[in-house]
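Postdoc handover notes: sequence design on the structure in folder B. Input tokens:
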């Protein structure tokens, strides 16, 4: 009887060990086969970091530049090779947003695909992802709203798009605020900026879950208390600090009392080291020579807010913050920031997109680019034959 009980206890022990081993194996397999988990994240993003390039540009409602000109908003030296996500925010967009999307897709083909885009009046926001990262995105949400009424109904307002990459969530906002040099306009812009952030985050599902919020656009902040002649002289002396000291947005972000609101925690991408981005005579480096002679200003800006790791390391750090000096088709210079963003693993219970992207735009861009390259080869071959 004792031998039977001993054999039975051995059997139970073996079964438990087998069950435990099986459960451990299944857990290991499940972990390695999750789409948004650590293994895939480590495989596709080195050190779990994504490089995000955010560009803002007021096109002035002028015709779309050719591909050679437009490429200047994407390519800024060797660091472009490491970019994983391109976000482009346009204000006063050329009327044909479809043509703009196609042209940008042609500039980025075939490494990137247009994941999501939104148009609202003269505002446009587009998000391009490295093609292999499309599988690891979660569903996007969006909101667009005007800040004005009457004829400015859709020229002053904002677009916001939120989406997930692996287990991290990001919110991007493109805003165009009120213009004007008067002091009352400065207060109006400050209120509009706080309102934009409040509305955008308040209308997004579970807005507190965003790891980082990026806001950019033609924010129209000016340089206070300095005459145009003084600004031009300081620029001639390369004394940017004198201008930035009186920059309205800098003062707003520094003012603790005013930032006890939706603006709390926001900071500029980095310290500005470039010349004012507004207002230029078209095709030149000359500031406004029209009868209005508007004062130079840093109207085009990028600010952000992010969470931190338990070690207090911010999830977002800025690698570069510059203007695109060589793109002169508008009275504004484009501004871009390149960010290093820490990405967290996620769970497959999140609402996956299934690698959704704007397939029609991608296919058309690839085909047009292939035709362009083929025509160029034929032209080169024909020229070579003529020489011989």
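Designed sequence:
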């Amino acid at each position: 009887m004792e031998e039977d009980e001993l054999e039975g206890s051995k059997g139970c022990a073996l079964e438990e060990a087998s069950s435990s081993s099986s459960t451990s194996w299944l857990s290991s397999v499940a972990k390695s086969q999750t789409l948004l988990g650590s293994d895939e994240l480590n495989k596709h993003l080195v050190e779990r970091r994504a490089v995000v390039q955010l560009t803002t540009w007021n096109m002035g409602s002028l015709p779309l530049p050719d591909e050679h000109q437009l490429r200047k908003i994407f390519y800024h030296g060797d660091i472009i090779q490491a970019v994983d996500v391109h976000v482009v925010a346009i204000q006063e967009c050329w009327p044909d947003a479809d043509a703009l999307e196609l042209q940008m897709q042609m500039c980025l083909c075939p490494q990137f695909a247009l994941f999501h885009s939104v148009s609202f009046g003269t505002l446009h926001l587009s998000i391009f992802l490295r093609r292999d990262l499309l599988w690891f995105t979660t569903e996007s949400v969006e909101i667009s709203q005007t800040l004005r009424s009457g004829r400015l109904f859709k020229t002053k307002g904002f677009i916001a798009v939120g989406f997930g990459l692996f287990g991290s969530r990001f919110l991007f906002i493109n805003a165009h605020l009120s213009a004007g040099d008067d002091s009352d306009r400065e207060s109006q812009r400050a209120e509009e900026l706080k309102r934009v952030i409040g509305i955008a985050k308040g209308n997004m599902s579970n807005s507190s879950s965003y790891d980082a919020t990026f806001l950019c656009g033609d924010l129209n902040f000016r340089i206070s208390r300095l005459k145009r002649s003084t600004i031009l002289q300081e620029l001639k002396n390369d004394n940017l600090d004198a201008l930035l000291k009186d920059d309205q947005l800098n003062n707003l972000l520094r003012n603790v009392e005013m930032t006890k609101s939706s603006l709390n925690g926001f900071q500029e991408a980095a310290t500005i080291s470039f010349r004012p981005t507004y207002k230029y005579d078209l095709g030149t480096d000359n500031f406004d020579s029209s009868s209005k002679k508007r004062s130079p200003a840093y109207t085009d800006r990028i600010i952000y807010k992010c969470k931190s790791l338990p070690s207090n390391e911010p999830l977002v750090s800025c690698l570069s913050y510059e203007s695109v000096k060589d793109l002169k088709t508008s009275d504004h210079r484009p501004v871009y920031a390149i960010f290093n963003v820490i990405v967290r693993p996620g769970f497959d219970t999140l609402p996956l997109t299934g690698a959704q992207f704007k397939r029609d735009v991608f296919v058309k861009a690839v085909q047009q680019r292939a035709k362009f390259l083929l025509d160029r080869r034929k032209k080169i071959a024909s020229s070579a034959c003529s020489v011989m």
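Context for whoever picks this up: The longest strand covers residues 49-58. Don't rerun without checking with the PI first.
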